[in-house]
Design goal:
The chain has helices at 2-17, 20-40, 44-64, 72-77, 79-83, 90-119, 127-151, 158-185, 191-220. With 221 residues, the chain is mainly alpha-helical. The chain has one domain. The longest helix is centred in the middle third of the chain and has 30 residues, at 90-119.
Amino acid sequence: MSAFLLVVRRDLRLALRQGSDAALVLAFFVLAVVLFPLGVGPEPELLARIAAGVLWVMALLASLLSLDRLFQADYEDGSLEALLLSPLSLGALVLAKSLAHWLATGLPLLLLAPLLALLLQLDGDGFLPLALGMLLGTPTLSLIGAVGAALALGARRAGVLLSLLVLPLYIPVLIFGVAAVDQAVAGSASRPHLLMLGALLLGALALAPWAAAAALRPALE
């Protein structure tokens, strides 16, 4: 457990020291959401209707921006091979790096989402499902993204390849995240959709580290 936490702390320190990636993610998220009222018009009813979809789509795209560096920097400088000498298994190493990625990018997106929801005139009933959905959904995005980052490691135009690999797998998170907010705003129960997001997170926790580790082994041999 101490080795796991050391890897998480190491990646967080690197993310803070090289803060451009995290800042780019947050800047993209904020600017992209702010541009929507300028593009579609300031009508409150229209903004409220599309608010959940805009926030989730922009969060999804923002999370992609830093995924190509999840393993690439450590792979290029040899740190990834050195980390393999630690007591952690490769799957646990992937899980630790995914957690650090979520803390550096996904958690700030979660904290910013309710503030931007105010700009988009989201109904008050949708704030709690939005926050809970982001809390369950953004870690899933990081875990699924780790699999794509491992598969694209060392490839040319890795960013494009990563997007093609990961975006189709993000669709269920997007669907249930938006549906949870829309159902709450409509006066219906959002709990089933939040439970589905929880199930997706549990599935990603069980499968994504193993799949990413399997994808990393050929690159490290």
